[in-house]
């Protein structure tokens, strides 16, 4: 007699042979499923009802999904809303926006926007951030010079000796034309958005002040603090490229 048939016959006679475990995700009970899963209609699923899900989740089609509008912090909310009593709601005052301001129900940090009116007169709202458009215009013709970038050390707006030399060259260049320039401050990606905006503003103003002391009319400068918006560095060796002030002709 075939050995497999003999084994089946013995199991039938003894009625004690264990059932073969179904192939996942099929199941006969919860024990056939992964941890925290449940056997429903012979299939392993994430939940049977909302009681199987975490706080802020509900059970839909046997899967735990986030409740619409539920939150634990402001960062969980879309469209610049704030989290109050685990619900994302529109803000009503600046007091509800930590380090920012309330504009038409949206909490905006420095440099953030939802419409052009949230920005300065010479800025537009692009991708949720205030940006001055038109940067990168060609330099004035026939002046034969360019404005050099100024680099900074970590967490400082102090101009280095190399930076001072470069600024003196920039002053010579600006003296050949009467055009206005954008002075654009940047930081590396470390630090909060608010801190980096302030630091980039300090760097741009330090540069503008230095050039003004060398004779350039301060009215020719337009300060743009961009913080970490354009940062590309990934470690200490590349962050130096982010800690800078650029110039663009207006």
Describe this structure in words.
There is one protein chain. The strands form 6 sheets. The chain has a 4-stranded mixed sheet. A two-stranded antiparallel ribbon has the order 1-2. Helix content is 20%, strand content 20%. With 250 residues, the chain is α+β, with helices and mostly antiparallel strands. It folds into 3 domains: 22-67, no CATH class; 68-108, no CATH class; 150-249, 60s Ribosomal Protein L30, Chain: A. It has helices at residues 3-14, 161-174, 193-213, 236-239, and strands spanning 38-40, 43-45, 57-60, 63-66, 82-84, 87-89, 101-103, 106-108, 124-126, 129-131, 150-151, 181-185, 221-225, 244-249. The model has no long low-confidence stretch (mean pLDDT 85).
